[in-house]
Amino acid sequence: MDISFSTSVGNSAWGLAECAQWAKSNDFDAIRPNATGVFEPSLIIQSGGEEVKEILSANGIYLAALTAHCNLLDDDAEKREIARDALLQAIEATHILGAPILVTYAGSPVSWHFYGQFSSDPGNPGDRSVELAGRFKQMWTPVVRFAEEKGVRLALDCAVRMGNIACNPDMWERILDAVPSEALGLSCDPSHWLWMGILPAEDAIRMFNGKWYYADVKDCEVSPRMLFRQGIIGNWWWQYRVPGRGQLNWGTIIGALLESGYDYVLCVENEDRGMPGLAGFALGCRHLRQFLPIA
């Protein structure tokens, strides 16, 4: 396993050479940029991405994946089609750059509410899970076929943010069954599972043996005192941390990933308000490195 981190490069963010140099000097093997800035798909398709490849190679860093969160499940049909076109371009750019993975997400109709009212029976009038699995099949089938042609695998972010329908084992099963393909899988991020109660994280990993195509890694901290005072609808009873500053056991999680056939990249994400910026990324890398098998 190698270690990467998620970042933006270009626009208002740092330049690619500076990013690659920092990554190398802080013991990272790879980067996973957003498909913006110097990694904007239209620019990569036009240029062929040779300058990007040369800068990364010169610094001993490789491109682990691209990230493009395009919402193919919007309730607005025109927006869905625009998003699908953007995702197809991101797949093409990923292929051109020689990265094996594009990290994206399943999509969302209306923020958080696809399951309808809390504590209501399945199939209640607000429960849109069956409808949206059908929409997923319709919108994603041609996308997955294109990814197959390009030799790119799609790793669906499991975050609950944005109302993402692929945020729990129930919906992972539905969408993977809707479009069965070796080009479609999941991106593992157990930080979300901790506060959602999808535990042990290792069991969730083993349930989807062979379908983890990427690993976005964050940690999470739950405060029992704040949870007691506010309940699950409160604020700040949980928060994301970089690996090593939360409550997840990365030794057992990495072991479960390896047992499930995943041996690619651990990608540090930093949404830790107590350890922001590059210092948090570097700390996460140092913490994870101790659990990796010696080559």
Structure, explained:
The chain has 295 residues and is α/β, with parallel strands linked by helices. The protein has a single domain (2-289), classed as Divalent-metal-dependent TIM barrel enzymes (TIM Barrel), CATH 3.20.20.150. It is built from eleven helices and eleven strands. The chain has helices at residues 16-25, 41-47, 50-58, 77-97, 129-150, 169-178, 191-196, 201-207, 224-230, 250-259, 277-289, and strands at residues 2-7, 30-33, 62-63, 66-67, 101-104, 153-157, 184-188, 212-217, 219-222, 238-241, 265-268. The strands form two sheets. It has a nine-stranded parallel sheet, covered by helices on one side. Strands 9-10 form a two-stranded antiparallel sheet. Strand 5, helix 5 and strand 6 form a beta-alpha-beta unit. 45% of the residues are buried.
Mean pLDDT, all residues:
94
Q: What's the level 1 CATH class? A: Alpha Beta
Low-pLDDT ranges: none
Shape: globular
Largest sheet: 9 strands, parallel
How many strand segments?
Answer: 11
Kindly provide the radius of gyration, computed on alpha-carbon positions and rounded to a whole number of angstroms. 19 Å
> Which structural class do you get from the secondary structure elements?
alpha/beta
So how many helices? 11
Name of the CATH homologous superfamily: Divalent-metal-dependent TIM barrel enzymes
Helix content estimate: 40-55%
Q: Termini, distance in Å?
A: 9 Å
Strand order of the largest sheet: 3-2-1-11-8-7-6-5-4
Characterize this entry briefly.
Strand 1 (2-7), helix 1 (16-25) and strand 2 form a beta-alpha-beta unit. The chain has 295 residues and is α/β, with parallel strands linked by helices.
